[in-house]
Design goal:
Length: about 180
Amino acid sequence: MRRCAVAALIAAAAPAQAATKARAPEPDAYRMEAYRAPVPATLKGATIVDTPKAFGLWRAKSAVFIDALPHAPRPEGLPGNAVWREQPRFDIPGSVWLPDTGYGALSDATQRYFEKGLEKATGADKTKPLVFYCLADCWMSWNAAKRALALGYANVNWYPEGTDGWAAAKHPLEERRPEARD
């Protein structure tokens, strides 16, 4: 009997241990490559939110949701008369999509785009709660949230489950277009 109880405890702990082992350690710098990989469980200076917490913030309209997923451009070299259909992005309703702002290194133009996008989304209030996300196991939102902290935003939340976790919980999604670049 005792052996069965111990075996049950070990079996119950195995998924949690596997999930812990699958997490990456938190780096000091931005992630520079392999953006679709296990992410850390932490981000210094930010609050980590799970799907129920993210949904609560969204439902209460108490935070600005920032989608950092990259945007695939029209392929270079594609003839002008070729049919090209952009893949739609479905994300958390009311979000601001600032694509390409989660790479490890940004061009000056993309850095300005990120800064202006956050300023517009928050009404220039660096204390306004922000929730950064993209997909599960996507470093883009981690990098973007870290970048917002470096810019002095004081209430940064990171939602590592992203739209994958949101959709799995059967929360609403809506089609989104990227914020315009100046």
